[in-house]
């Protein structure tokens, strides 16, 4: 190829290769022969130039374009092929029933109730440092619950801290027939005088709003409660948790009297209940 032909070829070659590079940049880098074949075909198309291998270059150009199209299609199909390989792996793994049976069950989602949020201030040498305090109760609705307190500058951060503390403080509670408490409870916590009464099936929870939310988190569906004295939400919540912890079960009464649990259950409840256990 003469120098004159190359000078005529360079502008068209630069324009075409730029367009090709924008459209198929990875393929051009991998197959530089495509540019050379395209350059030969462009030189053959210039009038007044003779190229004995024009037919061969045209055929190679078409072949290169076809190869480039196949490569582009293969790259476009790569994500779907990865998904198919993943699905095939999942299918092969699901065929092994022994491995699936050994997997742990999914964790139970906890119920969260933000019962009290207040603004507090701490006084130091520089003045008042204001923050937000929150109290949160969490439970699984099946006999386990806990409460926690958190303090931060923002309310959302305080609620998050309180939730984490409540999850750490979760404990189990005994329930009669998985719906109510075993007996009536009279409990004093500071200036709070709390009265909890067991109820028959279908009675519902007739109580203070804070006690109502605690019962929902624990899984108590039948209960009557009254609060006398101080109505401070912090003390009411703490008194409720402490009172439910200290309730006396038939096993405790039988152990104190030296009698059988069955006799105590027949005396107090009129029948024996074998489901009085922690979750």
Give a structural overview.
The protein is an alpha+beta fold and 279 residues long. It has 2 domains: 3-72, no CATH class; 111-247, Ribosomal Protein S5, domain 2, CATH 3.30.230. It is built from 10 helices and 8 strands. It has helices at residues 3-23, 25-30, 33-44, 54-94, 97-101, 155-168, 209-218, 233-245, 250-257, 261-269; strands spanning 111-124, 127-139, 144-152, 171-172, 185-189, 192-198, 205-206, 223-229. β1 and β2 form a beta hairpin.
Q: What is the compact description of this entry?
A:
Helix content is 50%, strand content 21%. With 279 residues, it is an alpha+beta fold. Residues 47-63, 86-101 have a biased composition (Low complexity).
What is the CA-based Rg, rounded?
39 Å
Taking the alpha carbons of the first and last residues, their distance comes to 89 Å
| Gross CATH architecture of the largest domain | 2-Layer Sandwich
Low-pLDDT stretches: 12-31, 49-57, 82-88
Beta strands, count: 8
The spatial strand order of the largest sheet comes to 1-2-3-4
CATH fold description of the largest domain? Ribosomal Protein S5, domain 2
> Helix/strand-derived class?
alpha+beta
Pfam families: Ribosomal_S5 (PF00333), Ribosomal_S5_C (PF03719)
InterPro entries: Ribosomal_Su5_D2-typ_SF (IPR020568), Ribosomal_uS5 (IPR000851), Ribosomal_uS5_C (IPR005324), Ribosomal_uS5_N (IPR013810), Ribosomal_uS5_N_CS (IPR018192), Ribsml_uS5_D2-typ_fold_subgr (IPR014721)
Biased composition (Low complexity): 47-63, 86-101
Keywords: Ribonucleoprotein, Ribosomal protein
